[in-house]
Structure formats: structure tokens, C-alpha cells
UniProtKB/TrEMBL annotation:
This is Vacuolar protein sorting-associated protein 41 homolog. SUPFAM superfamilies: TPR-like, WD40 repeat-like. The keyword Protein transport applies. It is a peripheral membrane protein.
Amino acid sequence: MSEVEEQEKRPTEESTDDSEEEDSEEEPKLKYERLANGVSEILQKDAASCMTVHDKFLALGTHFGKVFLLDIQGNVTQKFDVSPVKINQISLDESGEHVGICSEDGKVQVFGLYTREGFHETFDCPIKVVALHPQFSKSNNKQFVTGGNKLLLYERNWLNRWKTSVLHEGEGTITNVKWRANLIAWANNVGVKIYDFSTKQRITNVLRDNTSLRPDMYPCSLCWKDNTTLIIGWGNAVKICVVKERDPMEMRDLPSRYVEIVSAFETEFFISGLAPLADQLVTLYYVKENSEQMEEEFRARPRLDIIQPLPESCEEISSDALTVRHYQENECRDYRLEHAEGESLFYIISPKDIVLAKERDQDDHIDWLLDKKKYEEALMAAEISHKNIKRHDVQKIGMSYINHLVEKGDYDTAARKCQKVLGKNMDLWENEVYRFKTIGQLKAISQYLPRGDLRLRPAIYEMILHEFLKTDYEGFATLIREWPGELYNNMTIVQAVDSHLKKDPKNSTLLTILAELYTYDQRYDRALEIYLKLRHKDVYQLIHKHNLFSSIEDKIVLLMDFDTEKAVDMLLDNEDKISTDRVVEELKDRPELLHVYLHKLFKRDHHKGQKYHERQISLYAEYDRPNLLPFLRDSTHCPLEKALEICQQRNFVEETVFLLSRMGNCRQALKMIMEELEDVDKAIEFAKEQDDAELWEDLISYSIDKPPFITGLLNNIGTHVDPIILIHRIKEGMEIPNLRDSLVKILQDYNLQILLREGCKKILVADSLSLLQKMHRTQMRGVRVDEENICESCHTAILPSDTAQQFSVVVFHCRHMFHRECLPSPGTIPGAQFCNICSAKRRGPGSGFPEIKK
């Protein structure tokens, strides 16, 4: 809770301060300041009795009958001596050009602040209230009301005379009145009434709830929120009333408007004033303490609360205790709350003090956050509202935050915030860097330094790199990789790294960084040497990126020792830069590497390395036999005699068989399969591939005395050789494994062949019959002949113009039409005719005899 303190507080006031309120973590909603200047001088000699607020000025009434016009700062601009006794109420119209005043001695004055017109009257009873028509400055709205024992309406007629009418009487003293648009609300001892000035009807009577309270000690507070919403506060009860239009069907003798109470609730303390704040209420409470503490010097301070009204209760949003001057001597009736229309300004009036309450703006919010050391929230609020704040600067708040973080020892966060706070101010950046150096935290700020278009001096970056080089090689490496080389002098850093390598020449981290520095300095040969020495994965990227193929011609073996696959792929992808002959020359002493290179070359293109195919035979035989046979099959440039010699020397049977068959010596190849491999299935497969009757004869002759081979032949040769030939040659009495199964299989294969032939025959016959029927249907179909058709020979209309005349027309199945007399004689076959056009197409030029279509 916030408090308004006196500048010269008495000891008794200090003792009433609530320490819990001062230390509250909840931010207050309002801020307070005393209205000083002329107000202070007035209240030293006099006491405030009432005040009204306009957008342009304030009007203050006193107990000694004076009215002061004040500016917003409290300076006196005009003074009126109205009465020797208390001013009860002051009313202003919306324009602020006319004022109405009433006093305890019955005087009523209504006059223009800038004109001479006016109304002056003295009644025989105290006049408690006065209210001008909101549009009083307009000639047709010269009305006002006054209230004492009765409520009187004054209207100026066209003769410039004032006409008086009684709006209400008989229910005690009128204690308050508020006029808004066409509605007048007033309070007396019984309750609150609302009068519709446009229809001249009283539309409601809201009764007072707590009749035990004296209305003169606990007066009613009235406040219009808008043109139809009235807020009533009386004792400890609040009611919010809305004036609504009545349905024309329900009017009868009732007023055209009615009032609905939308919210009614009780408060903890007595109400001295009310004012709207958006959809909330600002309430001024008079706090009455327990009976044993009712001695005058211990009366409680008034409270200004913001509450959220609900239909039957309210929710407290904020609550502030106000230490106004002489609050111990005040009663509930001594306090008033006035507010400025359209502005969140609230004036708390007491006899000896006037306090202004304002909604806290963004500057106040930031002040509170800074006071609570919530720097991050303050910085965020300032950034969001940088256009609206007046007393604060985003960068200054940010610097305060950084200082706070440094004091806490949170150097990483402080360094990170530098990026946002310091922005493009290079001077501030350099100051912060030197401060972090002083406290030994250069590492913390290093990753946040500017490195784009805006940069610090190179010496700053070099200072940080030297710091890392002394204590953290990995951190140094990270900065070198992250920072653009333009930030610092590259040669200076190279020299520094060289000096450290003299102490530790095998340090891989330093060597890697040195290679990267050489790369940036375009000394690629030096960088390449280091990468190869370290067997670093980036060596290939370096070569590609900077086209260093001329530099690696003598380092091919090193590259392949490091990563054979990558090296070979790179060499093959760049044959135009490093020729195959050069690679083969470099790898001649490393045949295992040469084989990998030539093998991949052959896979890419079977013809590129053809002159090395002879060498590859021995390389495959030595290092990669599984790929030898595929190589022999795919290569068309391999010398077969050389290959056969090598395969025979190494006893590579499968490869030898392939070479023999390729060279035409199939019988020798088959013999090797049978004798060396003893694999009848492979022998049969070989015979099938060659499809040579002599080979089958050799295979049968070789197998005839070997029962397992005979079984294999019986199972596989049925579709290539007549099995009867093999069966006749089997010696009588020879035991053959699974003979029965083999014979059954032969019979099944034979039956299957018969079935397939019969099936094919049925399909062929069915298709032939279907096509014959289709042709017959086509030939039997009629052909339309009309006047549009022409003879294909004489090119005249096929039908004569006179249909009664006899005619003869020949129509062929090809849809060509002729006059009979236009067709040639039938020739050698009597009665046979043919289409000249289609027959000529079939015969072709020079055919002596036409093909006759029946």
C-alpha cells in the first residue's frame, strides 16, 4: 500500500506508519501528491469545505465563505468573497464558463466567469446543494437546481426572468445533487431520487439501507459514471443504478424510463466518496476504529481503494492508506472525492489537505520496478513503451541492469545483456570490455561482441584472443572459427600461436587453428601440410574449396592412407586436374591402393582405364578375388591369354572355366567343372549356357559311370536333351540314387509339356474362331449409299440424278464404291471383281497379277 506523507510529519504520525505496507511487493495502482502552492497558504488560515473539478481549473470553497479558482498545480487565479460562512457546494457547467455557489447562510449565486450575467438570491434556510444544467452556457438551457429543505428548479424565461418550480419537498434536507444530461439525481434523509428533465417526470426512488446512521454525519455520495449510470454510496452500502428505456407496450401511466440496480454490496468501511475508473470504482473510505480507541488523536487514516464491483459483492484491486493532515480530527462528512471527467485524476479533499491521486504511468511502473531491483522487467517495460516514457531512458535502465548483474557476480547474463543494451554504441562497448577485463571476465563477454558491419577496434578482439590463448585453447579455437578474420590482425595471431607451438609442438588444437589461420591468409600449402600431418577431415574440403589439386600431386599416397574412399572419389571426380596416369605413377609402389583406385575407375567407366586392365588382373587376383570374375566378364580389353595364365597359376577354377569358354575351349572348360569342381549342377548350367549338342554328349559320357551325376542329369536335361538317350545308356544293374523320383519328374515334365501344348492349341483355335466370326459379321453388315458418295474411278456421283433410271453399283468391303461399268473386266477368274485402289496398294508397282478379294 502507498502512503502520502506530510513534509513535516509529527511523531504521532510516524508511529502510525504500517511497515508491512511499505514493504509490500504488490505494485500500487495510484500515485499521490499534495496540491500545494496557493492551496497550502489557503488551508493554513482556512479550511476546505467543498471542491469541484473541471478539465481546465479547480474551484475550491472554504469554511470562511470564500471561493478560489485554481489552476491544476494549485495556484490561485481568482478569488470570490461569497459569504462569511461555509460554502456548501460549487457547481460548474461543462464549458467551465459558469459557476453556481451555495452557502450555509442561504446564499445562492450563479454567474458567468467571463460575462456579467448572474443570479443572486438569499434564502431563509441553509442551501446545501446547487447544480447547473450541464449545457448552462447555451441560451435555451439556463436552468439550475438548489436544495435545502426542498429541491427547487430555476428556469430563465424569454423575458429574462427566473421562474421557480418545486421538484421535491417533505423528506428532510437535500444533502447532495448531481445533474448529468437530462437526469437530475438528489439525496435526502429518505433515499435517492432521479428526475427526467426531458419528460418532467420522477422515475425512481432508491431507499437508504442503513437508517441508523445520521445522514448529516454520513452523507450520501453520488456520481454519474455516464449519461445513464448512477453510482450511490451511503454509509457502507454501494449501489450501481442504470437508467433504461421502458418498453412502449408496458408504459400505460408509468414513466418512459425506469431504473435497474445492477450491483449492490456492502463495504468494510464508511464511504466518503466515489468515482468511476473504467469498469472499476475508486472509493474513499472513512475508517472508524473500535470504541476503546476512539480518542481523537488515534482516529484512523482514510483509505482510497480501487474495487471491482460484482452483482452482489466486490473484489478489492488495491488499497492505500492516506496520511492527510489532521486526519485524527476529521469525520466521515469532512472528506470528499472529486474526479476529472475523461482523466484518471482523483482529488481527496479534507479540511486541511487536498491530495491528488493519479493512475500510475509507465514511468512510475518502471520506477517501482527499479526500486524493487526488478531490472529485467523494468528494461522490458521500457523497451515496449519507449515512445511513451518521459523520465527514463532504455539504455540507462539497461546499464543499471548490467551493473546490478556484475555486482551479483552473474557475469554471463551481464555479458548477454550487453548485446541488447549497448547496441551500436561502440564507446560503451569498449568501456564494458575493459571493465570485464579488469574483473577478469573477458571470456564471458567474448561471444557477444559486435562482429557484423559495426565493429570495435582490432586491438579489442586481439586482446581477448590473447587472453584465451593463455588459458583456454579450445575457447581460442571456437573464437577463431566464429569470428570473421577481418576483426583482427591475422599475422599477429599467427605469430602468437607459433610462439605457443614452440613450447608444445604436437598440440593438435593449436596446429588445427594455425592451419585455419593460414587458410584465411591464403597460405594454403602451409595449411594443407598441417591438415595432412594431423590427418584432419577438413583436408578434402580445403582442397576442393581452394582448388589445391596441383599441390597434392605428390601427396596422393598420404591422402589415401588417411581416407582411401574419400581420396579415390576426389581423384576420380577431378580427372581433368589430376590425370589417371599421374595417380597410377604415384601409386605404383602401393599396389593395394592402386587396386582400389583402378577398381573404382573401372566401375565408373569400363573403357577409361583400358590400358591398365592387364595390370588389374594380377591386382584383383592378389587383393580382391571376389571381383576378378565380374571384371573378366565386363572387360573387353583384358588379354585372355594373360588372364588364363594367371588364373591357372593360382588354380582359380571358376575364372579359368570362364576364360576357357570365352576362348572357345568349352569342352576343356566342362572337363574342369566335372573334374575339378565335381559340380554336376554347374556343369549342366554351363551346358545350357553354351547350348551345344557335343557338350551334352561329353557331359553324358562323363557322367554315365557316376550315379550321382546321372541323377542330376535326369532331373535337369528334360527340356534340352531327350531323356531316353540317357536312360538307354545307363548300364543294367547300376544303382542310381533317387531314380524313381527322377523318372517321375521326367514324366511330370513331359505331361506338363503336353498340357501346355494342348492349352496353347485351344487358345489358338478359340482366337481363330472369334476372329472369323467377327470378320463374317463385318462383311455381312450393310453399307449406306447416298448422293454424297462418288465413284472412285470416274469421280462422279455414285447414284444417278434420275432414280427411275436403271443403274448398277459395286461396293467393296473396304467401303470404296464404283459404277459397274467403271470396273475392269474380271480377268482370269470369271465373276471375280476387286477394288482397283486396295488391290494396287497390295500389289505394289510391277505386280502382274492382282490379288482378288472375295
